[in-house]
Amino acid sequence: MAGNSFGTLFRFTTWGESHGPAIGVVVDGCPSLLDLVAETDIQPWMDKRRPGQSRYTTQRQEPDQVRILSGVFEGKTTGTPISLLIENTDQRSKDYSDIAGKFRPGHADYTYWQKYGIRDYRGGGRSSARETACRVAAGAVARKVLGSAIQVRGALVQVGPHKIDRSRWDWAEIDNNPFFCPDPVAATQWAEYLDGIRKSGSSVGAVVELVASGVPVGLGDPLYDKLDSDLACAMMTINAVKGVEIGNGFAAAELTGEDNADQMRMGPDGQPQFLTNNAGGILGGISTGQDIVVRFAVKPTSSILTPRQTVDTAGNDTDILTKGRHDPCVGIRAVPVGEAMMACVLADHLLRRRAERRE
Amino acid sequence: MAGNSFGTLFRFTTWGESHGPAIGVVVDGCPSLLDLVAETDIQPWMDKRRPGQSRYTTQRQEPDQVRILSGVFEGKTTGTPISLLIENTDQRSKDYSDIAGKFRPGHADYTYWQKYGIRDYRGGGRSSARETACRVAAGAVARKVLGSAIQVRGALVQVGPHKIDRSRWDWAEIDNNPFFCPDPVAATQWAEYLDGIRKSGSSVGAVVELVASGVPVGLGDPLYDKLDSDLACAMMTINAVKGVEIGNGFAAAELTGEDNADQMRMGPDGQPQFLTNNAGGILGGISTGQDIVVRFAVKPTSSILTPRQTVDTAGNDTDILTKGRHDPCVGIRAVPVGEAMMACVLADHLLRRRAERRE
Amino acid sequence: MAGNSFGTLFRFTTWGESHGPAIGVVVDGCPSLLDLVAETDIQPWMDKRRPGQSRYTTQRQEPDQVRILSGVFEGKTTGTPISLLIENTDQRSKDYSDIAGKFRPGHADYTYWQKYGIRDYRGGGRSSARETACRVAAGAVARKVLGSAIQVRGALVQVGPHKIDRSRWDWAEIDNNPFFCPDPVAATQWAEYLDGIRKSGSSVGAVVELVASGVPVGLGDPLYDKLDSDLACAMMTINAVKGVEIGNGFAAAELTGEDNADQMRMGPDGQPQFLTNNAGGILGGISTGQDIVVRFAVKPTSSILTPRQTVDTAGNDTDILTKGRHDPCVGIRAVPVGEAMMACVLADHLLRRRAERRE
Amino acid sequence: MAGNSFGTLFRFTTWGESHGPAIGVVVDGCPSLLDLVAETDIQPWMDKRRPGQSRYTTQRQEPDQVRILSGVFEGKTTGTPISLLIENTDQRSKDYSDIAGKFRPGHADYTYWQKYGIRDYRGGGRSSARETACRVAAGAVARKVLGSAIQVRGALVQVGPHKIDRSRWDWAEIDNNPFFCPDPVAATQWAEYLDGIRKSGSSVGAVVELVASGVPVGLGDPLYDKLDSDLACAMMTINAVKGVEIGNGFAAAELTGEDNADQMRMGPDGQPQFLTNNAGGILGGISTGQDIVVRFAVKPTSSILTPRQTVDTAGNDTDILTKGRHDPCVGIRAVPVGEAMMACVLADHLLRRRAERRE
């Protein structure tokens, strides 16, 4: 049934298959009078996710140029739905002809087939990571809603077994390497490691960390639209994501109450301050005013050059080897996608929070 | 704003504070003609979560007796909303009088205060784990929807730093110890470990694992109502949960595509079979027909007997020591709560799946 | 499937059958810090709808005393769900024993039976007008959200073929007769007319008019959550309602563009003013700042003392005569119910409007 | 806030302004494996609504050619969102240059301005009836869901003060005149009447009647997603609609219970039958299995050639005369739009009904 919309007040709906004529997103609920220009406000974020920019991501070449079809008048949002369209230009359907009847392990081929009884087998169709371009476009609009005071940033903090050294974290490094890696030493190691993965036709998983700063206290609607539950949902909708955590996350399981709870003191500005941020900026499902910290795990790309055992739609055992253009580490491009989803969740809750303001 | 409902077709709404006269849940969308009797169909699950049953959980004594106020006629569901009410009997409001003006670290006191400008300070009010009794009641109804073919079970797999040995996993052990632990050796170790935690007035985190078996292929609605994103959301709404993962979860980040993707072969019954279940029973957001495997991390109980630094509503630095009756490891009682939430998610998606059946 | 909730940001969920132990409503999304006391803020509206107050309404005696079970602390709303419970005291199930297997014409007996395969036949069960007590309770909370500046009032403007004379409209007359009639002359005529209807065991339809004043411009969310579409939906959910119109309504079909469109002039206060209100205060689905005017038609009570042809659940032709206590004109008690629904729609849109306010 | 989606399981989202590059609709929740071809399955319905086909509708010339951008593979629906796009070709923005700063009486200009603080003044922007082309496209998809057994038809039954003679009702006449009029005599009268209206630059209102046949018993979800409340909502979202009624509608107010309730008898096929259909095929919010009958009133087109008093955005009194191309009776083209909305409501409830089927 219908499941292609996300959000409540700031709500987007995506559509499109990887090998159809276009993909797109309709953003509904964006407030009016925000400046929104495709070239300057949306395209830069698209470019960040765009494939083919380094040898560590798929070589599919898509300009990912966004067109605004509605909801903007003379450079400003009008409060009506914003329709964004991205044409598919590099479709190469022929690459996929040999997998039309086979279920690629780790992909959604089998489940789509079973659920719908039909499948657009060209490159994953709807389940392709290509759809995430729409999320990034929606996220760019969400950032306009958040304004300049709220900043959403993401980083890759682990590639395969290799984690960053957090003592070297430097946001400025993010743009200096093709991995969105905040640790320049790790970035160098990853480059070598991923070259090996790429050349062997293999793939590897990764962990992304997102941080939102400037988020005011009070966002989140307990008990079932909590800020953290909405963030967990958002991240888990991203292709290949298998785990999500907030603040200390799974590490909190090993801690005692003395170590985990964030103590408070009045700050020099006369406002309550937390002395630590183990909670990742969320208590009881509501933002505390601290940085919101989310991490999510991305599984290794399922398309690899080593033949794997599978079956076909006719019920025969067979092997498959995915020859298409793919990412050795799909987690890299998940960084801007995660950022976009976080921005959308925050924009939604920011509007929800406004609704409850006392006059 | 409104955030106290969960689900779409199978939908529940909870209400109530820990120290009000009662708590309750309205279950809407339950199909008609299911047998539903409070004593036999709901109460056993309530008893599993009920506090005061061992020295490892809070000593608050609540019979947690559920009354069915609507939606059932002559022992069968009628398709109309099922209202379930649980009276609060052991409220002891006086225990909380000294914390009325202080924000307990790790609790939602500060964020509720900031968000709503008012707070029912008696025992956490709405943010108390007491509300989870309503989830268990809803989950009991969800299990009737799932029927006997779909089974949802949970286990505690880690307490503090102590994990179970998976080679000893035995579901039959779950009921033989007060921890829902499937490993009898670990259970013995935990007993000793948690005695120490309890006596020192401390607390510790834990990890819960849920397994749903018998789930048919095809449940889940990509791309934003995926089965895994809904499960992640569900788990993250539970008090104190800080992380969720599906199948291999975060461990998938360290794997290669060769190791992580589940290969397939035709089974002896002529049906496609997966050779492994790294995916945790979900591909592309849709159930594969295998066991659904979810894990979530629970932070240590924030109420501890060691004084912690905090501030009060008047803006003064102060210390706080939470003397009330509390759980040394709130993760234990999170097991039946997690099961209930999983059952509700599955019931919802089972009904959604029915809607798309071809005639 | 689930269908017992109404509203988005201000959202209520009702439950309960006419002859169960109780009925109730959970109001979610009510802002915090509003004064709310059962006796003074809710009960007066309940009493207005309460049956048995004149010979023109059912003689069922229900005190309809509302209990607040959650969401209020020390007399103020806390922002958490407000659970309101009303016990059923005068159930007299025996009155309905002879209709258990027969479908009462005009009632929902047949459709509930077909839809759910089971039916609580005692007095209509869920489809009974008794449920509207919950709506009135929710409406009382909605009025607190609207505040004193927004006023929602209703009147009966037609009983059977007898309409009021609009030139005699006086809101002060509403409380001077048992019909909520603003025309004292019509009220006298209706009393005589309805006495005849009542004595003959018959029933008659009616038309209710609702007026909301003080509504600010800008409420309503085109194109599918328009203020008028939400109002139309709200009214049509009320038992026995068969038609809804806004402003000129069906009469607009007979007018020309010159006569129907409301012209504007700048007012003495320097604000734009409409010279007429044919639109009923809504243009393009958005409130204009004028009075919102809604009318709805209520069909005659289906329970009458004249035998009618029907069938039974065993598939036999039979006749039925409904002996229970019923309203000769159910439209009378629909006035406070319509008011409540209008208040809920406006409260929801008022909160929605706040969400889009520019900082 | 977000308000541009309609439906729950069968759900569509529209976007686009009358004078932007295109308009469109995303249909989510359409089951898979339905045949869907733009030219044969959608276009004929578009053509029915398309302007410029007679002198009684606007002379705007739009081919309204629909492109399917997603959700269909090899001529069949895939269960993924169906994106339909219609380019705006005849935009003539210059026609509207003189009304940029004036509020046209009866239009949504003033309310959009107040709500959003900005307005796409070219031809009504989002509030233009042009958007209804998207509804018709969605309705064409809905008809595929309904299948051939369920038929949705509409007719114009009143133009200004001139009603049809119901004894002459002949569905075959609908396509024989430019009014969708089932009474050939009335059609002739209307032609003459509307010629006068058109030549004088005036406009007039109308009433549309919709009939759905073949609808199974059991559709509709009491108490707040009733079939009739959803239909009322749907019709009231259509531009210029001011009233909706089901079955006898407002006429029911004048009837007695003896006359209004539909009696039953066992039919020759051994199934219960209703002897009349005063209820319009809905009892208690659930379909009875009879024809569903809905009527709605459309106000006269607000754009007329007679100058009307208004104000401008600068706060000055002014007059306005709308010179653009407009419909003398917008109610005519509301017929296929109403049909489409009814088809969408029924498709949604048909899917919802499937979800509750017992195995």
UniProtKB/TrEMBL annotation, chains A, B, C, D:
Keyword Flavoprotein: yes
Cofactor note as given: Reduced FMN (FMNH(2)).
Substrates-to-products reaction catalysed: 5-O-(1-carboxyvinyl)-3-phosphoshikimate = chorismate + phosphate
Residues reported in the UniProt entry to bind NADP(+): R49, R55
Coiled coil: none
EC numbers: 4.2.3.5
Signal peptide start and end residues: none
Binding positions (FMN): R126, S127, S128, N239, A240, G284, K299, P300, T301, S302, S303, R325
Cited SUPFAM superfamilies: Chorismate synthase, AroC
Cofactors, names only: FMNH2
Pathway membership: Metabolic intermediate biosynthesis; chorismate biosynthesis; chorismate from D-erythrose 4-phosphate and phosphoenolpyruvate: step 7/7
Keyword Metal-binding: no
Alphabetically ordered keywords of this record: Amino-acid biosynthesis, Aromatic amino acid biosynthesis, FAD, Flavoprotein, FMN, Lyase, NADP
Gene3D superfamilies, sorted: Chorismate synthase AroC (3.60.150.10)
GO MF assignments: chorismate synthase activity
Pfam families in alphabetical order: Chorismate_synt
Record-stated family: Belongs to the chorismate synthase family.
Complexes and interactors: Homotetramer.
Annotated protein name in UniProt: Chorismate synthase
Organism of this sequence: Azospirillum melinis
Organism lineage: Bacteria, Pseudomonadati, Pseudomonadota, Alphaproteobacteria, Rhodospirillales
Gene giving rise to this polypeptide: aroC
